[in-house]
Amino acid sequence: MSKQLFTIGYEGLDPERLTDALRSAGVAVLADVRAVANSRKRGFSKGALGTGLAEAGLGYAHLRSLGTPKAGREAARADDAALMRR
Questions:
Q1: What is the full DSSP assignment across 48-85?
Q2: Any residues with CB less than 8 A from the CB of 71 and at least 6 apart, and which?
Q3: CA 12 and chain centroid, separation
Q4: Cystine design at 22: which of 27, 28, 31, 45 (Cβ 3.0–4.6 Å)?
């Protein structure tokens, strides 16, 4: 069995639509790479997201170290593509 890696954003989604999208793509575990896994958006903070995914039979792992480091996030906010790539 081959393994695949997908990426997804949650802008414009509610937790149910995110879960449906993950299921339809055959995703078994969501790896959350956000530096701070909190959200003002209902259902997308670490605890709520993990619980909702578990109830849907999907896994959740907060893997902050796989995300963009602070300097990269700051470069992206400053629209500095060269620094972001470094």
A1: HHHHHHHHTT-EEEE-GGGS--HHHHHHHHTT-HHHHH
A2: 83
A3: 14
A4: 27
Residue pair 10/44 in contact by the 8 Å Cβ criterion: yes
Return the half-sphere exposure (C-beta side, CA atoms, 13 A cut-off) of residue 6.
13
pLDDT tens, residue by residue, 22-49 = 999 999 999 999 998 999 999 999 999 9
Give dist(CA 64, CA 19) in Å, integer.
Answer: 21
What's 66's DSSP letter? G
Token pair in block for residue 26 = 């055959």
Say if residues 83 and 71 touch (Cβ distance below 8 Å): yes
Cα–Cα distance for residue pair 30/58, rounded to 1 Å: 8
Q: How many whole angstroms separate alpha carbon 83 and alpha carbon 75?
A: 6
Q: How far apart are CA 67 and CA 32, in angstroms?
A: 8
